[in-house]
Specification:
five-stranded antiparallel beta sheet, 5 helices, 5 strands, alpha+beta, 40% helix
């Protein structure tokens, strides 16, 4: 005899998904790297404290996902968008180097590494987790 709990597959996965998201956010918030996560369309859906402190919290709150693009050095924008677009179309990791404007207006060099994050409950949807390592 089968027991019908009234829970479908999506409901059974929901608590695990929530826990996974909470664990990610808890770890990412205080990571010693600048980090952000994008959705399947390339829109920024999460930024950590290091990112907000570098770009400027007020800019991140005002511009949202466009804060990164606006902080890019104008000479690096086309290159970065091309690399980013190609990575999303191919679901492949990428590494790129560019200049990013700090909250005080000064540019710093970054090495940006992005990895596709394919959520086990949302295949074939793909998000990118991006880790930025800056150097001076």
């Amino acid at each position: 005899m089968a027991l019908n709990t009234g829970m479908d597959e999506a409901n059974e996965q929901s608590p695990a998904m929530q826990l996974e998201d909470i664990n990610f956010q808890t770890l990412a918030e205080d990571a010693p790297v600048t980090l952000w996560l994008t959705d399947i369309h390339g829109n920024v859906i999460f930024t950590n404290n290091q990112y907000k402190n570098f770009i400027g919290r007020e800019k991140v709150e005002k511009l949202g996902g466009k804060a990164w693009f606006n902080a890019l050095h104008p000479e690096d924008r086309d290159y970065c968008l091309t690399v980013f677009k190609d990575a999303f179309e191919t679901y492949k990791p990428f590494t790129m180097e560019y200049r990013l404007r700090r909250r005080d207006g000064e540019y710093r060099h970054f090495i940006d590494h992005g990895e596709p994050y394919i959520h086990r409950w949302s295949w074939p949807l793909c998000r990118f987790c991006r880790f930025l390592n800056r150097y001076y």
